[in-house]
Protein 1
Amino acid sequence: MGEGKIHIRRGPEVEMAREAGHLAAEILRLTSESVRPGITTLEVEEVAVGLMRERNCRSAFYQYRKFPGHICISINEEVVHGIASASRVIQEGDIVKIDIGIVRNGWVGDNAVTVPVGQVDPETLQLLWATEESLHVGIAYAREGRRLGDLCSAIERTVKGFRYSVVEEFVGHGVGRKLHEPPQIPNHGTPGEGPKLRAGMILAIEPMVNLGTKRVEILSDNWTVKTLDRKPSAHFEHMILVTKGDPEILTPRARLFPSKPVKEGEGAAGEP
Ligand code: MG
């Protein structure tokens, strides 16, 4: 993990990244609010595109490695990288993963959330809760002096505490002037391994968690990732700034499932 130099951002660079992050968070929140039974995934994407236009930013995903969409929108057993479609109608009981990345003044903001639509079965809701919790446990480890493996393993430990599985093929990443910068941030790892975290690093942390098997496949559209057993998957992402103190969430939003604040070393599944 973590091949390549990790950028340390300072002063005005941090301010630009923060602006991009806050904007990505606002667009994600407003787009999420449009999700309801009967709306198509293309209509949801159009909400996001309209907001990007109004706020003078553009999609970081559109045409990234030829990705055809402006956001990623993935339902139920789709893990990530779903493409919006006029023929895909959101139903009561679905869980909808929305991932929004924007570029503003040359800086990228990236974040994702899983939205439950109406009445969702309790087992699936628990998956969402656990995934969001694992994100916040991971964030609590994003501190100067910690190793990247401490953060990655904290996410894994939390997920496994719920007996869910972590998707290994897709990972979080450094973010800044580019959507994907070093380091890669897997949602599993070994404490004490990997690069040391330092103030000024900007990380996109994004656990992808499956109710059943960790195994996934890519569909014939070359993008959409699905669980092999077709059981649901959840995804939450924040972009954070490592500081000398508490990590700063650059994509602030209310938690879907508020819980007590996670302190370093007290994840849901405890210390190793
Ligand atoms: Mg990301």
Note: The pocket of magnesium ion is lined by residues 110, 173, 204, 206, 237 (CB under 6 Å).
Protein 2
Amino acid sequence: MKKILVTGGTGYIGSHTAVALLEKGYQVIVADNLYNSDERVLDAIAQITGVRPLFENVDVADEAACMQLFRRHADIEAVIHFAAYKSVNESVVKPLDYYRNNLDSLMRVLRGMEAVGCHKMVFSSSCTVYGQPETLPVTEDMPYQDASCPYGNTKRIAEEILKDIVRADGMKNDAHPSLKVLLLRYFNPIGAHASALIGELPNGVPNNLMPFITQTAAGIRPRLSVFGSDYDTPDGTPQRDYIHVCDLADAHVCAMEYLFSDGFSGWDAFNIGCGRPYGVLDVIRSFEKMSGVKLPYEIVGRRPGDIEKIWGNVEKAKRVLGWQAKRDLDEMTLSAWQWQRHLQEKA
Ligand code: WQD
């Protein structure tokens, strides 16, 4: 049974990916410093899969702690690296925290992998590396654009670091196999596992659209502010490529299996989305239809840093990884609401 290290594995996408990996028979080690998540997620994963992942309460940005983690699990065969700060807004306010944490964690993990001879990584990247694309849908060969925030810039820099290490490994003629890296560029993950036992758990006031919608519908927030309706889009609101978090988790399993296949070496990048745009009002309408709740909202000014529209060409992931999204917007919004109701029942 292959042992996979999932850093940031108690987080939103990490926990859903841990479930998908366990269900495919992988052994999962979760490393997380619980900065933006809760250890009880592991009990929920156990309830869903019947297996509680081995948990390491480690800040992988801490060099010594990260190296000790790898020494304890020298038989790790691959790493899925999620551990990072991920708030667009917060990164604008605390850029130094974001560059230190997101880049230190990547480099400490790479050092640990090198120390134990682990050469396979799936990296949690982001469509933010495309900035505001000139042509849509975006394809993986499009050049990086200026990221709209330090968070997005840490993802672009991380991709460059990983590519350079792969190139350097490729130049060595020693017996050690070169690093193999898959860069998964997520669009907008929303929704929750069908069990409603895991989902998005934002700290404080949510930055992202979906948790703000569900907290408004639950009466926690008085109303949703829709940031701008004067964009050059069908309904005037910004467009995003929303993807169900479980489809995103499945993409990581497909990527993992591709990493273990003999035919791949070096690095490659994949857009992981549904390949179609929705405006904010589309999401609201879907949510109201699926939840039966009329959502109070008001149109306000644009949010600084927002791009107008982005969605991905997702043909490459289908062709190479054998993966494509299966769940539609209604399933995304319904599952998000069911998760919010589970949180209310638990409160
Ligand atoms: C979506 C839309 C807002 C809140 C996210 C992640 C980022 C990256 C890319 C992975 C925008 C509008 C939002 C609200 C609103 N993913 N909105 N009112 O900014 O696209 O970025 O996807 O790396 O990590 O944050 O997502 O959910 O904040 O916004 O009108 O209260 O909803 O203007 O059009 P965003 P978001």
Note: Residues 3-194+241-272 form a domain with the Rossmann fold fold (CATH 3.40.50.720).
